[in-house]
Amino acid sequence: KPARGDRRFKDEVWNHSPFYELLKQSYLTNSKQLTELVDEAQVDDKLKLQLRFYARQFIDAMSPANFPATNPDVVRTAIQTRSASLAAGMQNLVTAP
How high does pLDDT run on average in the chain? Predict the structure, then answer.
């Protein structure tokens, strides 16, 4: 299960669609395994803190909720707006300072 307070998987589609459920469970399982790997590393405390930090950054960055093709809310909005939401997002990306 997602960590308490994790809002990335609040959309019900994550629990009712086999595709999104698989994505979510794969992500959570891999996240847990990477966290355990870091926790079991035979290194000094300073390096372990650094490893935890970088592992957490990687884990958060790889969430399927961060990618348009694997985020059900983005897909739904793109369908509803006939891709206008994606075009607006790309325009924001291109014009961002």
Answer: 95
pLDDT for the residue 2: 84
CA angle 44, 47, 50 (to 5 degrees): 150
Structure tokens at 5: 């307070």
Looking at residue 41, the DSSP 8-state letter turns out to be: -
Quote the pLDDT of residue 32.
97
Cα(85)–Cα(30) distance, integer angstroms: 31
Q: Which of 60, 82, 76, 89 is nearest to 14 (CA)?
A: 76
86, 68 Cβ separation under 8 angstroms: yes
What's the pLDDT score for residue 76? 96
- Alpha-carbon distance 97 to 64, whole Å? 26
Contact present, 79 and 73 (Cβ < 8 Å): no
C-alpha–C-alpha distance, residues 21 and 13, integer Å: 8
